[in-house]
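User: Modeling request: complex.
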Amino acid sequence: MAFEKNLRSLTRPLSALILGAFVSAILIRIVGESPWKVAEIFYNGAMGSAYDLGLSLFYTVPLILTGLAVSVGLRARLFNIGVEGQLTVAALAAALAGIWGPQDVILNRVLGFAAALLGGFLWGAILGYLKARRQAHEVVAGIMLNFIAYGITSWLALNFFKNPDSQNPETIPLIDAVRIPAWSYFQSAPIGWHVLLAPLAAMLLWGFYRWTEAGWAMEAVGENPKAAREAGLSIAQKQFWALAMGGMIAGIVGFIEVYGNSGKFIVGFSPAYGFMGIAVALVGRLHPFGIILSAALFGAIHKGSLDLDFETEWITRDFAQILQAVLILFMSCATLVPAGIQNRWEGLKRRLYGQRP
Amino acid sequence: MSQIKLRGIHKRYGDCISNADVNLDVRKGTIQGILGENGAGKSTAMKILYGLIEPDGGEIWIDGVERKLKSPHDAKALGIGMLHQHFMLSEAQNVIENIVLGQEPTHPALAFLPLALRALKLGDARSRLDMLMREHGLPVDLDARISDLSVGARQRVEILRLLYIDARILILDEPTAVLTPQEVGRFFIQLRALADQGKTILIVTHKLKELMAITDSITIFRAGKTITTVDTKDTDADQLAMLMIGSRLETVKNRHDVTRSAELALEIEELELNKTAPRRCTLNLRRGEILGIAGVEGNGQHELVEALRHPSEFLKHHKVKVLKFMDQDVRHWKTAQMVETGLGCIPADRHEEGLLLARNAVQNFILGHQNQNSFRAGPFIRWSAVRRATEEGMASCAVVPKKLDLELSRFSGGNQQKLIFAREIHHRPKLLIAFHPTRGVDIGAINLIHKKLLELRAEGLAILLISSELDEILALSDRIAVLENFAIAKTFDGGACDETALGLAMTGAQEGGQHGL
Ligand SMILES: Nc1ncnc2c1ncn2[C@@H]1O[C@H](COP(=O)(O)OP(=O)(O)OP(=O)(O)O)[C@@H](O)[C@H]1O
Ligand SMILES: [Mg+2]
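Assistant: Request completed. Predicted assembly structure:
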């Protein structure tokens, strides 16, 4: 019964995907490409080879984490839009820890991981403090903190730790030994054991909400703040922790980027993972495992649409982004069918199958 | 010929049959009472008639024409208006917006536009509402925000809204649950006048006295079926009880035979409930005593509960001389500390303050008791223990259906109330604030709750009983205090007080005090 229900909750994003694909096909026709050809390129781009699959996975992993981070906020009825800033700060923290830390492989990685968590946590905690204690609106404060995070990290990275051997805006690299080796299966795609951190985080979070008092309370505050207050829960405290915890989870993205991918902090490394996390969380219905699935979908769509640019004549990078946005737009609709039509459909079903007590 | 005719209406949710076979005939210009136990399917049937729920089958005839009601919009078009069992007011808006919104003659698709863009003349609405308020004796401040209103005032807003839309058929689902007897009296006079003007009224209530006073005939629901309809003039309260629960009605009464201990559970001296009030509130409550607080709502009941539930917060803005709970100075205590020391509370508005409606019974049973040792293992919740407690609680207070995993919004109103009661007494509190404790509960269950309250009192529980039901206060209280203008105006001995004396004290209070809010 529960399984059946879970299965049914999958049909909505899937049918949304189909509808979105249909609309995309029309758009593609209009610019003069064949939808079938585009679909093929799209498919090959997303999972045509082990390498492509690896790159899809490469985008999926940060999206799982940012999706989780956003979901923690949303469950407490807070819109954590500061995830982008949190993961940026965390990445710089991880890079600096890696550069300065002991050169012993294990110690260095542990330190880098801890620094990433702490960086994300701190940036989330600032947001949490502003929301819970200073009554700032979390969306405004989150956006501003994103700007500040971007500014401070680039300033620090480029003025004090700039890589002298490179033209790019990036810091000195870590030594090769501490970087996490990629699995050979995915060829040169940067996929190693670090990607397991994302599902691990999802599992921990699932357990957190299911079994701990803190998780239960954070959700209770989100669902009915007045009743939660009567129950003796501190709303401000739970709000603080929902944002700070979200920051910490987002922080893992920073670690993965620095240790698992580039080996350094690159200014602007994130293609808006934090913002896409909002869509990922909502499509995944805030459920940790739903978020894994929706992040996989988003990751594949992202990778697939990247290839359209150079494999077709008419589809540019911008147009690919339009297609991606159309798909996401459809998936984020809570109800795909207008209520009136749905009612008629339900009525028809009742008449066909007849439901008597 | 009957104006409303329901035939064989049925509705089920999974394996829970809400309406099995509902048949109803209501003649134009009459007042029809609906009576039945909690969970008998009354609200479901009313919502079906209002187009909120689509039945699985059956026929709805209005004015001799069979109708399919797909939404409340269809019902409104036919002149059907409904007052819901639970408030449907938007907290962030003020009274007049709540009444006028959704009723104005614009297309519903434009309803999201701000008022200013909808060319709405609030002025007209205001003068009409002023007239209605005067005519019906329902004072409310039209510019007050809903979130600032007491439950009694909210109820008056709901009634006003219904009168404002000028429906031909009025469905009232427990409209009097938190009104004072005086307000009920006035409201009934108006209802009768409306019926005489040709309006048809359906009223769901658990109060037999009210049914006898206002209705022309009464339909009894049992387990989702309408079992019979009786003419009010041919019946009496005993027969109704017989039809409804299958046994005679026995009322529970405090015999004043328990010797109270001298130990004070609660000591309040000079508590400022309202900054502008001339006097402060002083009262105390011994263990094993029931103190009934009578008085018109808005005279400090909510503030008193607020002060006891959240002392540290409340006293930031209010003064007090002494506030002691179980002999400890609690002026700086937080809510959690109060609860852990043994303060239970049945809140006035169960949906707003007492429940997580989207969660199941188990998740709700731990609300407020999340720090109980028996429910915890370090940072973890012992859900198995909570489940067991929920099961026990539901059994002892006759909550139906006995489904632990049912979302709370799917329990009937009375059963939600019983669950809160079960939860609050489960951990044997030292002091229980019972604010409208039997709101929406059927007569059988009221007896059960009253019996339990008296039993717990005998074991040493102190109870602060705040209720708009004078009968309830008179039946249970060891002492009765009349709250007037944020202070105790008068105190009676429970055994030596009757309805007239109390009513008189309260009317005096009402004249001197603030009403409205
Ligand atoms: N959405 C739902 N899902 C499952 N069961 C439901 C749902 N709505 C109502 N029920 C069940 O249907 C039964 C009838 O509910 P209803 O609210 O009509 O009772 P009621 O007669 O109004 O009771 P009360 O006097 O307590 O208000 C209850 O047992 C309730 O649990
Ligand atoms: Mg009901």
